[in-house]
Structure to design on (162 residues):
């Protein structure tokens, strides 16, 4: 497991990837100009996912349970580390990168696969159901990923149960 003991030392801090860094890339796709030309086949992927505030989703179980992370394959810290990548994955998708390439990226792959991968049947995008009162309820899997996103205050991509 990766530790972050040396993060206070300037030379040990990892490079932070920001939207500005992505905009400086020369290989990015100009999605707006391609869309204006009506040539969607030239766009590797346009992010059409629907995003909602994670705090608006009612989990399927009690997130305050002291045993919430007991017996899990991943720790609370590992879920948080994955969720921290949500803004970067979202920005890179908006810049035209494909979900397939992001899943293979060693820095953001776990996040891309577990929050954004629409083709994954299980443990992919969070699935929600809209209740009659307009609230959203998490369906099936994803309580730990939802909790991590909620703790960070992030919007998450969701798929709606029909």
């Amino acid at each position: 497991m990766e530790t972050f003991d040396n993060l206070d030392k300037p030379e040990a801090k990892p490079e932070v990837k920001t939207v500005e860094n992505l905009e400086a890339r020369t290989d990015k796709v100009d999605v707006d100009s391609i869309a204006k030309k009506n040539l969607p086949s030239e766009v590797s992927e346009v992010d059409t996912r629907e995003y909602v505030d994670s705090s608006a989703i009612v989990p399927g179980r009690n997130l305050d349970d002291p045993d919430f992370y007991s017996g899990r394959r991943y720790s609370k810290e590992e879920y948080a580390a994955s969720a921290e990548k949500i803004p970067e994955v979202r920005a890179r998708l908006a810049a035209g990168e494909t979900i397939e390439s992001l899943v293979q990226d060693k820095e953001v792959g776990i996040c891309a696969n577990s929050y954004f991968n629409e083709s994954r049947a299980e443990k992919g995008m969070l699935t929600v159901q809209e209740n009659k009162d307009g609230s959203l309820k998490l369906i099936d899997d994803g309580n730990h990923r939802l909790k991590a996103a909620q703790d960070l205050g992030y919007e998450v991509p969701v798929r709606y149960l029909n």
User: Anything to note?
Assistant: The radius of gyration is 17 Å. Helices lie at 19-23, 31-36, 76-83, 86-94, 99-104, 109-116, 143-152. Strands lie at 50-53, 57-58, 126-130, 136-139, 155-160. The chain has one domain: 10-160.
